[in-house]
Amino acid sequence: MNIILLGPPGAGKGTQARVLVEERNMVQLSTGDMLREAKDSGTEMGQKVAAVMARGELVTDEIVIGLIREKLETTKAEGFIFDGFPRTLKQADALADLLKDMGQTLDKVVELRVEDEALVKRITARSTCGNCGEVYNDITKPIPADGKCEKCGNTAFKRRADDNEESLKKRLMEYYKQTSPLIGYYYALRVHSRVDGLGEIDAIKSSIAEKLDA
Ligand code: AMP
Questions:
Q1: pLDDT tens track for 106-118
Q2: pTM: predicted TM-score of the whole model, two decimal places
Q3: Of 5, 31, 157, 158, most Cβ neighbours within 10 A?
Q4: Among 29, 53, 166, 176, which is best to mutate for testing ligand 1, by the most ligand atoms less than 8 A from CB?
Q5: Residue with the nearest Cα to atom 15 of ligand 1?
């Protein structure tokens, strides 16, 4: 089964993708993670996209489609979770072509719905484990008192350069302008479903499972 988790920044796509990886043996393909890796390892492409990402703008379709193509060609999986991709109609068309070429289908698109006010609160409080990527939140899921990641025991945590109010405003605008039209696109293809993304991680996980298993 191949699925897309769709939603604005901070909706919980990454968190829920990690749950699905653990429970369903699927592979998470996050273009945001791939771009951050390229940036951190200092590749030419990584340097090119760093400023664009920090401003909260979208990286070109060509770059992200290229990243996804390469991963799909080199990764064996029972199913892929697309997290943060596609973000434009052009990317959505490209994904359809790539899956078709592989003899595969896009089975479900789960939209995580969270209102803006909650997104701002979540994102400005967010940090992740520098080793395993476990997501923490200063208010709802603080880093354990012993300073160790609950998943891997690592003690270094990071905050994203674009997790600030100014970049977030731009990221939200990009979402509504460029990505939210995909809701209609996937609705028309009869693969879209919507889940309330506000609440406990476990409750949201169950709502997603219900949609996937329907
Ligand atoms: P994310 O981790 O998904 O929030 O992505 C972080 C940033 O990476 C975004 O604000 C964009 O600058 C860039 N990015 C990630 N995925 C895409 C995509 N599919 N298309 C364009 N830009 C992307």
A1: 999 999 999 999 9
A2: 0.93
A3: 5
A4: 53
A5: 32
